[in-house]
Amino acid sequence: MDEGVPVALVNAPAAWVLPADGSALWWRTERSVVVRGFGQLEAEIMERLWDWGRPATVREVVDDLNLTRPVAYTTVNTVADVLFQKGWLRRYKAGRAWIYEPVCSREAYTASLMREVLAESSDQQAALMLFVEGMDEGQARVLRELLERDTGRHA
Questions:
Q1: Least buried of 7, 60, 78, 155, by fewest C-beta within 10 Å?
Q2: Cα dihedral angle (89, 44, 67, 18), rounded to 10 degrees?
Q3: Carries keyword Translocase (predicted)?
Q4: pLDDT tens across 54-77, in order?
């Protein structure tokens, strides 16, 4: 794992957890959805936009966040702008308000994280083997089906 790249688990209530080896700080929450590379509020904004499946205004995000904890409009507006500047969100103007939407799906983002983490391994074969061994039967079945489908296309 890259040093200085936070790993956030989103949706309050939450608590910081330091792994026993001290390798990284994780943001742990009730939902335990890993969003690597985002700060807490960035992750909460992205999760809402992904969950909603539609573009949204900062006001909508603020109102939803305020159901679980207080957060200022200006804070969310600033963080949404940061996500836009980083390339995670696209935006367009509707009257005086910015409308934001993710540039990729949660699944595409997750897949890119998986590729990034695998690329960081010094032994990718061992990492893949351990990953597959940790799958439940349903996940393993889906992987087998995907590999068989892919093998048929490349035969």
A1: 155
A2: -170
A3: no
A4: 999 999 999 999 999 999 999 999
Beta carbons within 10 angstroms of residue 6's beta carbon: 17
Q: What kind of fold does domain 7-102 have according to CATH?
A: Arc Repressor Mutant, subunit A (1.10.10)
Residue type, 51: D
Q: What is the DSSP letter of 105?
A: -
Output the furthest CA–CA distance in the chain (Å, rounded).
56
The string over 61-86, giving b where at least 16 C-beta atoms fall within 10 Å of a residue's C-beta and e elsewhere, is: bbebbeeeeebeeeebbebbeebeee
Q: Compute the radius of gyration of the chain from its Cα atoms.
A: 18
Residue linked to tokens 């910015």: 98
Residue 29, both tokens: 């929450």
* H-type alpha helices, 1-155: 40-52, 58-65, 73-86, 106-120, 124-133, 137-153
